[in-house]
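G., before I forget:
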Amino acid sequence: MAERPEDLNLPNAVITRIIKEALPDGVNVSKEARRAISQAASVFVLYATSCANNFAMKAKRKTLNATDVMSAMEEMEFERFLQPLRESLEAYKKGQKGKKEASEQKRKDAKEKKNDVEENDKSREEEEEEEERMEEDQDADNEVEEEEVEN
Amino acid sequence: MSGDNAEDKVNHASNSKGISLPMTRVKLIMKSSPDVSSINQEALLITTKATELFVQYLALSSFNNGAGKDNKTLLYSDLANTVEGTETFQFLTDILPKKIFARDYLKLIEENPIEEADN
């Protein structure tokens, strides 16, 4: 698998934003410093991955999981990250659960509607029902999205 | 937003969606590591988040530590000095070396033949 060097870099705009938000207002960052931090971040990912992978291999697993990454952070002496990482993970899991429930509910609704339609006259009425369903799905989608944003 | 202090701004950015860095790119970097077969979604999420935390930590530590503090500018030398002086950042010494003028370096190796020191 051939990767060009630039593909292993993180997007400059995002890195710059994260740096600026971490520093006090009005502080500038030299271009060189920005580039160096970006490279350091890529190296950090590699180091963390390698470290996490060791934990996975020790546990005879082929798939890296969240615990491996947490263990890697400890190993790398970045314990300060553990708490915020746990919080991010919790928020993610909750979001996933909400999405799953929402899509299960959608499937249920769609199934019920389908049964109703089959009992009535087909043709045009069926088309109208489908349009309504699609609109409601849209609403349900929007609702789910809104919840995520608030989180 | 201008009234917020630095910490609030950091929390704001992190909490609005959770993640700013693109997970697809982070995954690409992770997969370039030898022996890695697959990565589950949660692991990818945490690694991405950790990388953001790392960027913040490196930037802020270097700034607080650095000579650029009075100039209100973060310089490369601040980073290199911080990396050299902080154990947690030792893994970065190869990519964030301190800079030295070529003539000074040549003088150095003239006076002291290069030998690799064990860390």
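Residues 144-151 of chain A have pLDDT under 50 and may be disordered. The helical segments of chain A are 12-22, 31-58, 66-75, 82-119, 123-150.

More on Monday.
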